[in-house]
Design a protein that fits this description.
Largest sheet: none
Structural class: mainly alpha
Order of helices and strands: HHHH
Number of helices: 4
Shape: elongated
Number of strands: 0
Helix content: over 70%
Strand content: under 5%
Length: 102
């Protein structure tokens, strides 16, 4: 190719529009993927609460507190309050994200 030459290749792409069937199919796939990606993180919230109970079973911290004189009702009430606060924070953040992104 010489300097200043005007030769070249020109490409024009005019795709056909989607049919109503393909648009519906595409919308269904997008909705399914959106639902999966929204629900997937919510599986980790209850797992967090169970992980604490398993860790407590291994370390026997409840037994140590009961031997020290803590009532079982106080232990379980504090555990419930902590779970409630952490769930409220997680839920509030999720709702705020949904509101921000419509």
């Amino acid at each position: 190719q010489q300097h200043g030459s005007t030769e070249g290749i020109k490409l024009v792409n005019n795709p056909l529009p989607y049919s109503a069937y393909h648009e519906d199919q595409s919308a269904g796939i997008k909705a399914t993927l959106t639902a999966v990606f929204i629900m997937l993180p919510f599986c980790f919230i209850p797992a967090n609460y169970v992980a604490f109970l398993v860790k407590e079973r291994v370390s026997k911290s409840k037994h140590v507190q009961v031997v020290s004189g803590v009532k079982l009702s106080a232990y379980w009430l504090s555990n419930f309050c902590w779970d409630l606060v952490s769930f409220t924070v997680s839920s509030t953040l999720a709702i705020l994200i949904f509101l921000m992104f419509g």
